[in-house]
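Standup notes, structure subgroup. Blocker cleared on the glutamine hydroxamate input:
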Amino acid sequence: MCGIVAAAAGSNIVPVLVEGLKKLEYRGYDSAGLAVIGQNGIERVRSVGRVAELESASAATHSPTGIAHTRWATHGIPCERNAHPHVSGAIAVVHNGIIENYESLRQELSAQGYVFTSDTDTESIAHLVQATLQDEPDLFQAVRLACQRLVGAYAIAVIDHSQPGRIVVAREGSPLLLGVSDTGNYAASDASALLQVTRNMVYLENGDVAELTADKVRIARLDGTPVERPIHVSQLSAAAVELGTFRHYMQKEIFEQPDALANTLEIVGGSKTIQPGIFGADAGQLLAGVDSILILACGTSAHSGYTARYWLEAIAGVPCAVEIASEYRYRVSVPNPRQLIVAISQSGETADTLAALRHAKELGQPKTLAICNVPESAIVRESALRFITRAGPEIGVASTKAFTTQLAALFLLTLVMAKVKGRLAPEQESTFIDQLRHLPVAVNKVLELEDAIEVWAKRFADKHHALFLGRGRHYPIALEGALKLKEISYIHAEAYPAGELKHGPLALVDANMPVISVAPNDQLLDKLKSNLKEVQARGGELYVFADADSEIPESEGVHILRLPEHYGELSPILHVIPLQLLSYHAALVKGTDVDKPRNLAKSVTVE
Ligand code: HGA
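Run returned:
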C-alpha cells in the first residue's frame, strides 16, 4: 500500500520515477506525485487518480534527483492537497505507512510556526525533518534523528533542495529496498519498480537509514552505527510484470494458475514420497513435536487457511484453528509452545499478519512457518520454517494465483504432518502426490469454462446482492467466491455453509438474489441438494458449479455448470477457479476497474 520510488543518477530521472510508479500502482492509486531538485527549488507535480495523469503533468520536469509516490489514503481523503510528496521549506518527503503519534507532532510543530496544508500524518514527517535540520544541517543525520521520534510504520524518502544530488531513505515496518548500479542509485517499495534500471537489490532492515547519491550508497542504523547489507541479484523477470495480451492482470493471473501451480509443486519433483525438508532444513525436527496448528492470515489468505483446516484435521489428524491476524494480535490468548504457527501472506509484508506472527513469538511460540510468495519478505525472514509459493508477481488487487498456490502449499503441509504423525500409508501418499502433479492439467480444463461463465456473468449486471453456498472444505471456497465478487464488482455478497441457510439468510432469498453454489460430488452432495431445494422453493435463482458426475439436473431457476474432473480432497483448488472467472466477468459487465478496485490496494502494509 502506497508505492515509493526514488532515484539519484547522472541524468534526468523523471521517466524512471514514472515508470517505477506504474509498476507500483497496484499498491495504491488514489493519487500520484513526484518532487525533484530543480534549478530554483523543489519542483513538485501531483495529480489525483492514476500515474498516467502524473506522466502528462510532469512531461516538462527534468532533474537527476527525485522522489515519487502513488497513494492509498489512510489519513485524509484522496485529493491533490493530500497527495505526496509533502514539502516543508526546501525539503520534500514521500511516505508509506502510518505515523501513530502524528497528532502530537502536529501540535508541537504548529506551535513552532510550521503550517500544515494537508490532513495527512505524513506532513508531520516533512516538518519534523525541517525542524531537525535547524540544529543538524546534514540531511542524513537530520532524517536519522527525526525518525527516532516517529511512532508507527514508515518507509520514507527525503530530498533537500539545499543538498542537491542526495536522497535519504529510512524504513520501519513498511517495505523498502535499494537498487544499485553504475549509472545511479535508487530506492523503491518493491523490486518490480527498479528492474528497468538494475537487478542489484539491497533489502533494508527495519531501523535502517540510507543515503543515495548517483555514485554512492551508505547505510546506518537509527543510532548512527554504519551497517553493510548484501546485494541480491533479483531473479524477477520483467515479462512477469507485463500485461501481455491480457485485458487485465486479474485475467492474466487466473490463466497463469496452471503454471503457478506447476512451479510451486516442482519442489516435489518426480518423487513418490514427500519429505518435511521442503519446509526448511530443520522442519523434520521442529514438526515432530507439534501437537496442533494455528493459522494466522487475513482476507484471501485466511480462506486458504480455513480450507487447510479441513485437510489438516481429516488427513493429518492434527487439531487446527484459523484466526484472523488482526484479531489474534490484540486478543488475550493461551499460548502453546508445541503449536505450529502458520503465517500466510502473498506479499509476506501484510502488517497484521506480521504483527500476529511477532505476537505469537513473544508469547513463547517458537515453532513458526511462513507460507508466502515473496522469498525476501519480512514474514519469511522472521519464521523458523518457510514455504515459498512460486506464483510469480501478483499485480491484480484481487488475489487469484496466490490463493491456489497457497492451497497447494497447505496440502503439502497436510501430507507432511500426516507423515510425521504416522497417518499416511505409502499408497495414499503416492496417490495424493500424483493428484497434485496432475493439478495444472485439471486447472487448464476448468479454465475452458470461461465462455459459459461469461454468459452467466451477464445476468449479474443488474444485481446488487448475491449469496454463495458451500459445505465442508468447499465452504471456504464459497467465502472466497463472495470476497472476489464484492472486491471487484461491488456486488454485495455473503457466503454461508449451506446448512446454515435456514438459520437466517434464507429470509433474503427472492428472485433478485442469485445464489451461487459450489457442489462437488462428495459425501455432502445430498445434503447440499436439499439446501438448494430450499432456495428454489423461495423463487431464488441458483447457479451451481457441480462436478461432471454430480447428479443435479438443470431445471427452472437452476443453472448448472459441470467441472470436467472430480478431484476428491483437492477439489477446492479446482472449484475456486470458476468463482474467480465469474467475479471477473461480472466486474467487466458492471464496468468497474478490475485491477484497481475502489478503496482497496495490494500488499496491505498498514494496520
Ligand atoms: N498515511 C499516509 C500514507 C498512506 C499509506 O502508506 N498507505 O498504505 C497517507 O495517508 O497519505
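Discussed briefly. The radius of gyration is 25 Å.
Next: hand off to the docking folks.
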